[in-house]
């Protein structure tokens, strides 16, 4: 065997070990149309509901951060006490019907083969592409988890966390500070409810007066946000997370963060820290050269693949559910 072949074999071995049983094209023999079926369901749903793509992208993140990417967020069964889905941290999460619909088609086509956790991961990728973001290969082969409990979501990153807390919560999931910035870049699409805004706009330091807002908000942008989410107004009103190009998956969210135009507090916090600030800046188009130093879209895709590896279950601690909202 040539030296390069030996190196490649060792390299591939390590790659497989680090991601467990996950592999691109895991269903290519057992359910060759699996990815096409998920893609069909997501595309059809997105045609009728512009909120679908951001919801499905968020669903994958919310799933992965609690008990790993194992579909634990999907459980909605009366026989389960306090399932994870009802957790405070999962406020506003949606897309469940589309995952269940894809599962129904898949069970008809190849029963007992494709996990719900994989459907969520594939749907998130398709959502990114539909919004104009990068295509990336999704590693599959996850099993569905056997646990779903609200209390396990207690430690999810919170909109009002400090940058140090956000960094450590991501670090605990094996994600770097750079990946924190990249993944938060997902807020280039979608909306947030005014529910998440009062502290940032009216009670940032706990003085509870209308001048007590996050000093990082651009003074021109502050009245815009306050108008959209007035004090004691309707907390269900939804506002774009990317105030400039909300429906397009691009790098505008990072420019917004740089310009003090982040909408939710946790996005703004990325500019509080020397390292994460530098990462944001490295992706932002500089006005003179108009060339970013790194490719946000490409790096975002890699960070998504890495997030998809969090806490993946295998046959020893997981199953292939028949219905995504119930354990077998
Ligand atoms: C620091 C971590 C994060 C925090 C604190 C956070 C917080 C939030 C909040 C408060 C909302 C608004 C929810 C609503 O009103 O329904 C939201 C929406 C969203 N988040 Fe995050 N998020 C974080 C990371 C992520 C990551 C890693 C992703 C994906 C990779 C993501 C994707 C999304 C998307 C796409 C939406 C829009 C959902 C919609 O339009 O329904 N978020 N996030």
Automatic annotation (TrEMBL):
Record Pfam families: peroxidase (PF00141)
Domain Plant heme peroxidase family profile: 21-328
Coiled-coil segments: none
Keywords noted in UniProt: Calcium, Disulfide bond, Glycoprotein, Heme, Hydrogen peroxide, Iron, Metal-binding, Oxidoreductase, Peroxidase, Secreted, Signal
GO cellular component terms attached to this protein's record: extracellular region
Protein localization: Secreted
Protein residues bound to Ca(2+) 2: 188, 242, 245, 250
Disulfide bridge partners, by residue number: 31-110, 64-69, 116-324, 194-229
PROSITE patterns for the chain: PEROXIDASE_1, PEROXIDASE_4
Cofactor: Ca(2+); heme b
Residues annotated to bind Ca(2+) 1: 63, 66, 68, 70, 72, 84
Residues under site feature: Transition state stabilizer: 58
Gene3D superfamilies, sorted: 1.10.520.10, Peroxidase, domain 2 (1.10.420.10)
Binding locations of heme b: 187
EC number(s) per entry: 1.11.1.7
InterPro entries: Haem_peroxidase, Haem_peroxidase_sf, Peroxidase_pln, Peroxidases_heam-ligand_BS, Secretory_peroxidase
Signal peptide extent: 1-20
Cofactor note: Binds 2 calcium ions per subunit. Binds 1 heme b (iron(II)-protoporphyrin IX) group per subunit.
Keyword Metal-binding part of the UniProt annotation: yes
Chain sites annotated for binding substrate: 157
Similarity comment: family membership: Belongs to the peroxidase family. Ascorbate peroxidase subfamily. Belongs to the peroxidase family. Classical plant (class III) peroxidase subfamily.
Protein name: Peroxidase
Species per Swiss-Prot/TrEMBL record: Penstemon smallii
């Amino acid at each position: 065997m040539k030296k390069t072949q030996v190196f490649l074999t060792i390299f591939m071995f390590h790659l497989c070990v680090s991601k467990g049983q996950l592999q691109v094209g895991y269903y290519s023999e057992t359910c060759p149309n699996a990815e096409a079926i998920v893609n069909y369901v997501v595309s059809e749903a997105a045609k009728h509901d512009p909120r679908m793509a951001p919801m499905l992208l968020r669903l994958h993140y919310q799933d992965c951060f609690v008990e790993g990417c194992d579909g634990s967020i999907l459980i909605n069964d009366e026989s389960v006490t306090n399932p994870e889905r009802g957790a405070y941290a999962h406020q506003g999460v949606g897309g469940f019907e589309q995952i269940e619909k894809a599962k129904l088609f898949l069970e008809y086509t190849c029963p007992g083969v494709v996990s719900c956790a994989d459907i969520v991961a594939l749907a998130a990728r398709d959502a990114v592409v539909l919004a104009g973001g990068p295509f990336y290969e999704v590693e599959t082969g996850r099993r569905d988890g056997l646990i779903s409990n609200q209390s396990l979501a207690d430690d999810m990153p919170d909109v009002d966390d400090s940058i140090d807390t956000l960094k450590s919560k991501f670090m605990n999931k094996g994600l770097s500070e750079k990946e924190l910035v990249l993944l938060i870049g997902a807020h280039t699409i979608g909306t947030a409810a005014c529910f998440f805004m009062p502290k940032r706009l009216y009670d940032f330091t706990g003085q509870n007066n209308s001048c007590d807002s996050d000093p990082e908000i651009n003074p021109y942008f502050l009245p815009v946000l306050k108008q959209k989410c007035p004090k004691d107004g309707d907390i269900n009103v939804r506002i774009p997370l990317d105030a400039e190009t909300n429906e397009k998956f691009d790098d505008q969210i990072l420019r917004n963060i740089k310009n003090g135009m982040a909408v939710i507090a946790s996005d703004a916090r990325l500019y509080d820290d020397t390292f994460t600030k530098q990462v944001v800046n490295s992706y932002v188009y500089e006005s003179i050269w108009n060339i970013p130093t790194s490719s946000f879209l490409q790096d975002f895709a890699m960070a998504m693949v890495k997030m998809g590896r969090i806490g993946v279950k295998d046959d020893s601690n997981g199953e292939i559910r028949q219905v995504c909202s119930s354990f077998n």
